[in-house]
Amino acid sequence: MIINGVSIDKTFAEAFPMKATRAIITAQNEKWAMISAQAMTGFATSVIACGCEAGIERVLDPSETPDGRPGVAILIFAMGGKALAKQLETRAGQCVLTSPTSALFAGIEAGKPIPLGKNLRYFGDGFQISKKINGKRYWRVPVMDGEFLTEATTAQVDAVGGGNFLVLAESQPQALAACEAAIEEMRKIPNVIMPFPGGIVRSGSKVGSKYPALGASTNDAFCPTLKGVTNSELSPEIESVMEIVIDGLSQEDIDKAIRVGMQAVCDLGSENGIKRISAGNYGGKLGPFHFHLQEIMA
Amino acid sequence: MSALTLTLKTRPRQRVDMSPLVCQKLAGMAPDDIAAIPLQTGNKTVRVDELFKIQGSDSHNLVIAGSCNKLDFIGKALDGGSITIEGDCGAYLAQGMKAGTVRLDGNAGLYAGCEMKNGLLEINGHAGDFVGAALPGNKQGMKGGTILVKGNVGDRAGDHMRRGVILVEGDAGDYCGARMIAGTIAVMGQTGRYLGYAMRRGTLLLWNQPRLSATFNDCGSHTLAFLPILFSSLKSLNSRFADSAQAFNRVQRYGGDMAETGKGEVLVKL
């Protein structure tokens, strides 16, 4: 398959099951909601070392938030329910409770309830106040700027992590420009995040390593400087490869994100140095969810 | 199916215990069986059809027409369905209600909504003393749900209240929110003496500055984020509380009762 001079590999991206939740952070203005959301989703690029993968889903209009203030929706993904609950709680405690004027609410109603502010309330040292409104429990925790309002729980749902595609280009600036264009479109899709810095990862990995302690190592087949010395996937004109990784609440959500992202890359086309799109494929060993690139673009 | 309507034939001379006539107990009963249900009145037991004319068949939607203040325990432990009362009612309206809706056109007697667990009690007239309170000797009053009173409430509204919301469009008597354990009482009108007497936790939300006991301390003026959420939860009510022009988030906060734990609050609109 070739679109606008870009060759789409007949391969699939492999993804695995995760647990996820959404939280809504509001503040006096969008600036402070965003600051808190960025802190809460910081250092959350990969479960390999961060404990979770998290990102900003979108900015919310005051009419969409529970307290009528500007807000930001974030998604957090982890490999299991326990890890998710722990990450959510520690991040909320350090990054939202601490952030001026913030309030924190559940972003998903249906699913298994997991603590959001339920345990953060103890920061109130007995002065915390519970309010049950329309069946939902809120905690009002006295803090130095006034009151930190938080919903007690949010819901955990089954999700999919690790959807991806690789952009192969003739130069590093061209690979980056194409990925930036893709991310801009993909951010418009609900229920997904691209957890890596700016949504783009340059250090794609393969499973395993020559060092026994490491479970993953550089994807040498896609490293352009190793074209001549390893079993390379790259043709001579490829000088740079970048990857976009997508976590989503469902397979369909990731499908949509991959489609608009790949479309944006193809729109730049071969005249902008984009030669090929491939995907991180581990021979079906990594996970049960497969995203066939050609089928998605068909 | 039309609503099951019980029309009071004449004003009874003695008080009547209406607790057998709740939706969940009437479900699936034939009209003859409903007519034969025994009701206690004074020291006598009478059949339902001796006191009421029975029409309609939808027991999920019960109407008590021509009601008067002798009818006690209407909607006791109601567990789903709706009861509409045309006229006044006696004491213990919707006592221990678990779910459903009770609507009263007129005035209620003592202990309306006492020890209520959930559901909605709407009183269009006035309510007597001990709205949403605990029965004498019991430690916990209302534990959930909403009581809306469009008129005034008597003394000791929300006595020993544990959770839930009491909304009063009119005035409240003395000892409003006394011995509250938690929950929310909102009063648009005036409040009487000894407001929040011995309250431990909970919120008294007032539109007018109350006369406060010496054991309530000023905590200053604040903008509280939970108030917009509370007000938006009242939007579905047929009440002035649903009117967004009545909503506010800026309050003077008083903490008390300091003679107790001091973790309750009186919030007064600024």
Write a structural description:
The complex is a heterodimer of chains A (298) and B (270). Chain A has 298 residues and is an alpha+beta fold. Chain A is elongated. In chain A, helix 1 packs across helix 3 and helix 4 crosses helix 5. Chain A contains six helices and 18 strands. In chain A, 23% of the residues lie in helices and 36% in strands. Chain A has a 16-stranded mixed sheet that branches. Chain A has a two-stranded antiparallel sheet with strand order 14-15. Chain A folds into two domains: 152 residues, Alpha-Beta Plaits (2-Layer Sandwich); 139 residues, Alpha-Beta Plaits (2-Layer Sandwich). In chain A, strand 1 and strand 2 form a beta hairpin. The mean pLDDT of chain A is 95. By secondary structure, chain B is mostly beta strands. Chain B has a domain of 179 residues. Chain B contains four helices and 17 strands. A 13-stranded mixed sheet of chain B has the order 5-1-6-8-9-10-11-12-13-14-17-16-15. In chain B, strand 3 and strand 4 form a beta hairpin. The radius of gyration of chain B is 19 Å and the shape is elongated. The mean pLDDT of chain B is 96. Classes of the chains: A alpha+beta (298), B mainly beta (270).
Strand content of chain A: 35-45%
Strand content of chain B: 25-35%
Low-confidence stretches of chain B: none
Q: List the secondary-structure elements of chain B in sequence, H or E.
A: EEHHEEHEEEEEEEEEEEHEE
Summarize the helix and strand pattern of chain A as letters.
EEEHHEEHEEEEEEHEEEEEHEEH
Query: Number of helix segments of chain B?
Result: 4
Largest inter-chain interface?
A: A-B, 18 and 18 residues
Question: Mean pLDDT score of chain A, rounded?
Answer: 95
Number of strands of chain B: 17
The gross shape of chain A turns out to be: elongated
Helical fraction of chain B equals under 10%
**Biggest sheet of chain B: strands, sense, closure?**
13 strands, mixed
Molecular shape of chain B: elongated
Oligomer type: heterodimer
